[in-house]
Write a structure and sequence with these properties.
This protein is α/β, with parallel strands linked by helices. The chain folds into two domains: 141 residues, Bacterial extracellular solute-binding protein, family 7 (D-Maltodextrin-Binding Protein, domain 2, 3-Layer(aba) Sandwich); 130 residues, Bacterial extracellular solute-binding protein, family 7 (D-Maltodextrin-Binding Protein, domain 2). 44% of the residues lie in helices and 18% in strands. It has 15 helices and twelve strands. The strands form three sheets. Strands 1, 2, 3, 4, 5 and 11 form a six-stranded mixed beta sheet that branches. The protein has a four-stranded mixed beta sheet with strand order 9-6-10-12. Helix 2 runs antiparallel to helix 12. It is globular. It binds beta-D-galactopyranuronic acid.
């Protein structure tokens, strides 16, 4: 966080500044792995606009998109240490750090994106946001990440048997490694930015992601088969560094929380639009889409993954409450 109060006061006093917009006293640097224009990037920019307006120009947000500040796992560490102020990330990379995030990252835990919204918009969502704080992070809001499906460069996956022996990239979380192994594939945890070249050079056969990521990363150019098995609906989260947060007044903290909350409906609209655009673009490029797939064997294969990762009464209770949410 760059606080330049004295400098701002000096500039304001100088004739050169007359007539210009008030400069930011606090600039929050926010990280995102996605490119400019992607719904998560645009949502954080929108949040920044709300914040700037509501703080009368004092608080600004600068979004560093396209992994300019690093890959997700590294930027999470930097956010915990206060080097980065805000971060928009998937829940996945938090799994090995924050127990509660594991539950909402389990395969097939949500029945649909609407179910995920109902859970995350309610009490459970608030409990999970609060679980970030002991880990030096403040959970601000949830964003959408649609549902994730498999893509690869080798052959159409029509059944769980077709995954056998395939080398598939997963996000860096033990749950996803175990998920992929339980489905018969060989899991390769890799940073997002390495997936394109790894598929292109044959280091891996494929990966899994939602329509907008499949499209915007260009992975569809090197992986011509996409199977809509929708095994994961992982919420995304906007977090703030507790270090940066602790340096703010309670009033400014509330402004930030509220601006983050207010960006959510706008994000959801942008997401729906982009999902359609991405799907159109991928289909037009000639990617073979496999949609008539029986999900049951994939769901049944996840029993040992739940057994291994849902290890405490608290986590079991969370799973039951999510399943019981209408
Ligand atoms: C995207 C998600 C990113 C990142 C990426 C990945 O869908 O928005 O935050 O987690 O997937 O697979 O690494």
């Amino acid at each position: 966080m760059k606080i330049t109060k004295t400098l701002t006061a000096a500039l304001l006093a100088s004739a050169a500044f007359v007539g210009q917009a008030m400069a930011c006293e606090i600039t929050l640097r926010s990280s995102d792995t996605h490119p400019d224009g992607y719904p998560t990037v645009e949502a954080v920019k929108y949040m920044g606009e709300l914040l700037q307006e509501r703080s009368e120009g004092r608080i600004c947000v600068t979004v560093f998109h396209s992994a300019q500040l690093g890959e997700e796992a590294d930027t999470i560490e930097q956010t915990r240490f206060g080097v980065i102020d805000m971060n928009r990330v998937s829940m996945g990379p938090f799994n090995n750090l924050i127990e509660e995030t594991k539950v909402v990252s389990l395969p097939f835990i949500f029945r649909s994106v609407d179910h995920m919204h109902r859970v995350m918009d309610g009490e459970i969502g608030q409990e999970i946001l609060a679980a970030f704080e002991p880990h030096d992070l403040i959970g601000l809001a949830y964003f959408d990440g649609g549902s994730r499906s498999f893509y690869n460069s080798q052959r159409p996956i029509r059944s769980i048997e077709d995954l056998a022996g395939m080398r598939m990239r997963v996000m860096q979380s033990d749950i996803f490694v175990d998920m992929m192994s339980a489905m018969g594939a060989s899991a390769t945890p890799l940073p997002y930015g390495e997936v394109y070249s790894s598929i292109q050079t044959g280091v891996i056969d494929g990966a899994e992601n939602n329509w907008p990521s499949f499209e915007s990363s260009g992975h569809y150019e090197v992986a011509g088969y996409y199977t809509l098995n929708e095994h994961l609906i992982v919420p995304e989260v906007l977090v703030m560094s507790k270090q940066s947060w602790d340096g703010l007044t309670p009033e400014d903290q509330e402004l930030i929380r509220q601006a983050a909350r207010d960006s959510v409906p706008v994000m959801r609209e942008m997401w729906a639009e982009r999902e359609q655009q991405s799907e159109d673009q991928v289909r037009a490029a000639g990617v073979e889409i496999i949609s008539d797939i029986d999900k049951t064997p994939f769901i049944e294969a996840m029993v040992p993954v739940y057994e291994k990762h849902v290890t405490s009464d608290a986590l079991r209770d969370l799973v039951l409450r999510i399943q019981a949410t209408e």
